[in-house]
Write the structure tokens for this entry.
Amino acid sequence: MIDLHSHSTASDGTLAPAEVVRLAVDRGLSALALTDHDTIDGIAEASAEANRLGLDFLPGIEISAEYPHPGTLHLLGYGIDPQSSILRDMTKTLLEGRDNRNPKIIDKLQKLNVAITMDEVEREAGGNVVGRPHIAAILMRKGYVGSIKQAFDKYLAPGGLAYFDKERLSPVKAIGMILESGGLPVLAHPIQLRYQNDAQLERVVKDLLDVGLAGIEVIHSDHDAKLIAQYSALADRFGLIKTGGSDFHGANKKVDLGIANGRRIPREYFDSLLAAIQNRKAVAAK
Ligand code: AMP
Ligand code: ZN
Ligand code: FE
Ligand code: FE
């Protein structure tokens, strides 16, 4: 069993990259992808630890692309080359989007008489990627809310008292940059698109396919059996790779590594993904 969707302290998870790898080994997983939001800062550490422990490892990244509310469109990039200059440009742009947004959230919270500072939030984050879950963790610790979810509902999610959006890449641009960085773009947790009907979902998938989408995340903590069957059929129909992961965030999310809504993710998903990445590299080298 494997996990192709996980976050570390490099973004908004609570375990260090090497700790995520060690947990994967403890859980008996045979392969892992680290997919931190907007950064590859954790990849070197995770990759070295995976190598040491004999765990198959894929470098990854997760990007939130432009998409109308209330849904969100996240793209996973697998097999990206950490040395790629395109990738470096992309992560720089994405971090600027966060750095422009986060002080607005903190200002608004302060106006609402919440005692919180940008310094505290940066300390909470540790790394370069400062996200809303870090703010949520502080709100919870200080007793302003009872849970991370409540922090989002009341303050941080769209419609919340201190919600601000960040500048995003268009899906076309995000997919293009993942491809140019040697990676394969995969649509993450399609349920979070909050589509009105199946036709709308298919239209989104088709549009992304036209600009280079390679896969779809079939198994995820937010997907039930019915959705998994539906996304699996969609993948087959469009010739998309199937992936799966828990979206593990350590203590920031009630999700266990290697288990997605009670389900395990088959090894076969990793093997097909790896084969597709290698195949594309071989074609590109010709
Ligand atoms: P950010 O990257 O700062 O925009 O924060 C997005 C991250 O916050 C997501 O990837 C999730 O990990 C988390 N998140 C988003 N919405 C919620 C929610 N309603 N409840 C809990 N966590 C959420
Ligand atoms: Zn996250
Ligand atoms: Fe996501
Ligand atoms: Fe994620």
